[in-house]
């Protein structure tokens, strides 16, 4: 396919996402299935165009004075891809499968484009209804934080210390030019290409053999902040596909016991293959079984309960840019209810002196500090751990600079730590 035909295809997919209100991944996949002539290179390039357009949907609409899929694509080409107006005009020729030629108005808009005077939610590309939440979390930085959340994310990997060291993993993947991550001592970062495509990791021997796992640096740091040590009894209460479970198992060096569970058994499915690949031998998966209490024997016995809470995922918008536009206020209310319920559930398993580590990949105070404050108001037998002290004790002194100004815990974000947005707070049972 020509570059122009790829742009046309991406506009077609954006229209499908808009009219059928479906996840971007589904529309991209369906397009590939119904256009078999497109090769894997075409599909990857088209998908990258679609995701780039979704990142800057609101600011593109402002710049172009129009919120159609075509305007979204024009905005993305101009601002995310940095194409000059003439280069864009050379794609929009109307010839063959190229999109219709630029109108006079579009040419003017592309030449003059400026976000001067745009409100923070437009300049920062987040939904208008979340503006008060962003203001509460970031104040005058709201638009900058939003813009950083609209950037492309690099591919972060975690060296699996059960099988290798970071230096060896860096050497094994040298052809992809990985760099050590700035905060996590076990992280590797691979930049994505200018066209938005990442490395094909699934075929890399280092990945297949379990030397590395894909995990954002923020998620690695959340696990490291738990200070999981060999010999502990650990419950991963929201284990899902096992990202945190695997990181905890590596920290514990295969000594002690981790119980991994999730209220949705289907979400646990990938964990079994991942455990095999990683060489983690101390994880017992406790999948739900109807009404049976599969955790009854763990009551009051845990040194550490990890809550990687279900959340809006607002911290991971770099990786799921369509999620921010699909999110509705009702979803935030539901997540808050879930988070309160899971914090309550965790108390059943923590022993005296043990701790709950509460993690979200959200940047919203309502899901983070507010949940912890409400929990502490209900439970005078729990105390928050000083996050700066904890970061230093966990060997992450740089994270001590990221203590939340709104309550216990640390905050991370693409703007401040170059990671996905994460929140981590630790609560000790007295
Ligand atoms: C953020 S995801 C977990 C991601 C996972 N820990 C990882 O690192 O790959 C949150 C998980 O919480 C689970 N969940 C939601 N409500 C729950 C509840 N009441 N009890 C336990 N798990 C719950 C969801 O099914 C989902 O898998």
TrEMBL record:
GO terms for molecular function: RNA binding; RNA methyltransferase activity. This is 16S rRNA (Cytosine967-C5)-methyltransferase. S-adenosyl-L-methionine binds at residues 262, 308. It holds the Pfam family Methyltr_RsmB-F. InterPro entries: MeTrfase_RsmB-F_NOP2_cat, MeTrfase_RsmB-F_NOP2_dom, RCMT, RsmB-like_ferredoxin, SAM-dependent_MTases_sf. Gene3D superfamilies: Vaccinia Virus protein VP39. Belongs to the class I-like SAM-binding methyltransferase superfamily. RsmB/NOP family. Residues 145-430 form the SAM-dependent MTase RsmB/NOP-type domain.
